[in-house]
Design goal:
Layout (H helix, E strand, L loop, with lengths): L15 H14 L3 H4 L11 H20 L15 H12 L4 H13 L8 H17 L6 H10 L6 H8 L7 H17 L12 E2 L31 H10 L15 E4 L13 E6 L6 E4 L6 E2 L5 E14 L4 E16 L2 E12 L6 E4 H7 L3 E3 L3 E6 L2 E8 L5 E3 L2 E3 L1 H13 L3 H8 L5 H9 L18 H6 L20 E7 L12 E7 L5 E6 L5 H16 L5 E4 L8 H10 L2 E4 L9 H20 L7 H10 L1
Parallel strand pairs: 1-2, 2-6, 3-5, 3-8, 4-9, 15-18, 18-19
Antiparallel strand pairs: 4-13, 6-7, 7-8, 7-14, 10-11, 11-12, 12-13, 15-16, 16-17
Length: about 625
């Protein structure tokens, strides 16, 4: 019997839960599971024939189990008395019911999140597998917790489905939730949606013909042409006008775009006052009219001239109510001036989407509610609330629309306001702003040497601290190399870091190396790697070697936030051995200075030796030999 006949992957020490289930199916197929599971025991066999049959099945099951394992795993069961004993040893080793293992699995279960674009079925199976592993170690998860964790781990693009499920009066079972999620994913795939669903907002403005309890349209005139028999949204003249204004450009294949977004924009105006500091908006023409949109998930604007920090991006389709298509091409920030009970105030709309062909600016109630506070609609208008303060956002207009009145502040006006407020409006400071925040000495040189043309100042006066310069020209303060006390015991803290890829590989194709440094002795061990994914295996090898040589146990592994140190394999090994991982904050290599400095020392040593001995004249082979020797 060979391993290939089993038709399952050999067990390499990882993902025991999946291998265990497949192995059980193989043993069931061969009528050997009753011996392995302990349903039939040797002492229950009374006749010699039964005893011989039991021993034969036990030996056969033992062979099947061992042949389905990698070469590194059979030592765990080599001394087992039979198949049942071997199976129990594997369960005790890989499904330990220790507190550390339960904590590790629970942390993974409750922190598993679904990223945008991930497959829903894979995410569901991942959570279900973790729940089964928890049950195997004696920490079962109830169905309610399983459902809650699944809904809470979904990406932002599924928030509408989550809201719909939460509104159900009946109990949410695991089967119901998973079937709805799979059905939703199937519909999205059928629609040909691609791209990041989180970056795609759908903007809906409630139309009169979508409301419940509306009268029969045959008895009411159209508000656009005055004829009876259709609503304004169905008016032929209005549809023709909008079609000509929003004629779509379909030069680009829709399959390569982001998922289409819908903005059902009612052609009415709205007036009101509001106060806020929120993010994500979009727009259409250079009109200053903003409509309060109770269904939009994004804010939209048409004018680029009022934007600051503008960034362009690949065109995103936005579908209008008349089935026309417009495109968002960028985003930025807009400073808005508005009237509040405390007087005129300014608010900032951040990450505002720029849609040049949109006919009205949209103010999203949903985005405002998420970022600022609740919105209340009354007969005369709508009101926002935040931090105990309530103010009017929009005034009710005809046909159920709410118009928002606020004044966009141009970037130069905002800077001028700052200059007049902070610097007394001096001309020197004004020219400092006009010339790209030039320094005092540079501006003085231009004026005294009469280099510039049209600069209407005779002398440069000192100005106070410029806010823009203070924020834009600041540099990071040099990191203070405070001497910290070393640990008092060997292997208490192990520093580690990966270096590479190198410009030239070794004979065996290795371009990386990883270092493990003991904090007390500074003893360093280096392993060459083909890829970063080998870090977990090398740390296991290092820990076994170091603990055997010193008689001590590794307590802490300190590294950066690299993905190679956050793999499931390494995390599981550390949890089983009681080793705590300590990660430095992102973009702060100085906090992992021991390992970083050792990497630099090793690289400089190799480079200096090669340069001094002119190894570069010998070609790549000589350099590879030096790298191997080091």
């Amino acid at each position: 019997m060979d391993a290939s006949s089993l038709r399952i992957s050999k067990f390499d020490g990882t993902n025991f839960h999946a291998w265990k289930f497949k192995m059980q199916m193989v043993l069931e197929e061969r009528d050997l599971w009753e011996v392995v599971s302990g349903e039939i025991k040797a002492e229950q066999c009374e006749t010699q024939l039964d005893q011989a049959t039991y021993k034969r099945k036990s030996r056969k099951a033992m062979a099947v189990i061992c042949l389905a394992m990698e070469d590194s795993q059979p030592p765990l069961v080599r001394s087992a008395s039979g198949a049942c004993d071997a199976w129990s040893r594997l369960e005790d080793h890989f499904e330990k019911k220790s507190l550390a293992n339960k904590l590790f699995l629970r942390r993974r279960f409750f922190t598993t999140m679904m990223e945008e674009g991930d497959d829903v079925l894979e995410h569901i199976n991942k959570l279900k597998t973790l729940a089964e592993q928890l049950e195997a170690v004696g920490a079962p998860v109830c169905e309610d917790d399983l459902v809650i964790t699944l809904l809470g781990s979904l990406s932002d693009s599924y928030q509408f489905l989550i809201t719909a499920l939460e509104s159900r009066s009946d109990t949410l079972s695991w089967e119901l939730v998973t079937s709805r999620l799979l059905h939703e994913e199937m519909k999205r795939k059928e629609q040909g949606s691609k791209g990041d669903e989180a970056s795609q907002g759908q903007a809906f403005i409630t139309r009169d013909n979508q409301r419940k309890g509306r009268p029969v349209k045959k008895s009411w005139p159209c508000h656009n042409c005055g004829k009876i028999g259709h609503w304004m949204a169905e008016c032929p003249s209005r549809i023709q006008e909008n079609t000509e204004r929003h004629r779509p450009q379909r030069a680009q294949d829709s399959g390569d775009r982001y998922r289409s977004q819908r903005a059902n924009v009612a052609q009415e105006e709205d007036s009101g006052d509001y106060l806020f500091l929120i993010g994500e908006t979009t727009s259409a023409k250079s009109s200053d009219i903003w409509l309060v949109d109770s269904g939009a998930t994004q804010h939209m604007t048409c004018s680029k001239k009022f934007m600051r920090n503008y960034k362009g991006f690949d065109a995103v389709d936005v579908h209008l109510a008349d089935d026309g298509i417009v495109q968002a091409i960028g985003s930025g920030d807009i400073v808005m001036s508005m009237k509040t009970p405390q007087g005129m105030k300014k608010g900032v709309l951040t990450n505002v989407w720029h849609i040049p062909k949109l006919s009205r600016n949209l103010f999203s109630v949903g985005r405002f509610t998420k970022d600022v506070g609740p919105v209340t609609f009354t007969k005369d208008g709508c009101y926002g609330e935040a931090k105990g303060t309530k103010w009017k956002i929009g005034a009710r207009e005809g046909k159920g629309l709410f118009k928002l009145q606020m004044t966009p502040v141009a970037p130069e006006q905002a800077n001028a306001a700052k200059s007049s407020g902070c610097q007394g409006g001096t001309k020197s400071y004004l020219w400092h702003l006009r010339l790209g925040h030039i320094g005092h000495d540079g501006l003085n040189c231009i004026v005294t040497k009469n280099i510039g043309i049209g600069i209407d100042i005779s002398s440069v006066k000192k100005w106070d601290v410029c806010e823009g310069c203070a924020l834009g020209k600041q540099t990071r303060v040099r990191f203070q190399s405070n001497t910290t006390a070393r640990t008092s015991k060997l292997l208490e803290v192990i520093h580690s870091d990966v270096c590479g890829p190198m410009s030239m590989a070794t004979f065996s194709g290795k371009r990386y190396f990883v270092t493990f440094i003991d904090d007390k002795s500074r003893y360093c061990v280096v392993y060459l790697l083909k890829s970063k994914s080998e870090v977990a295996a090398k740390f296991m090898e290092y820990a076994a070697m170091a603990e055997t040589q010193t008689g001590k146990r590794v307590k802490y592994l300190q590294s950066d936030n690299g993905g190679e140190y956050k793999s499931d394999k390494l995390a599981r090994f550390c949890a089983e051995r009681g080793i705590q991982q300590r990660f430095t904050p992102p973009y702060t290599p100085q906090l992992n200075g021991v390992a970083e400095r050792m990497n630099r020392t090793l690289v400089e040593c190799a480079r200096c030796m090669m340069e001094l001995m002119n190894f570069r004249l010998l070609g790549p082979s000589a350099k590879r030999k030096v790298n191997i020797y080091l």
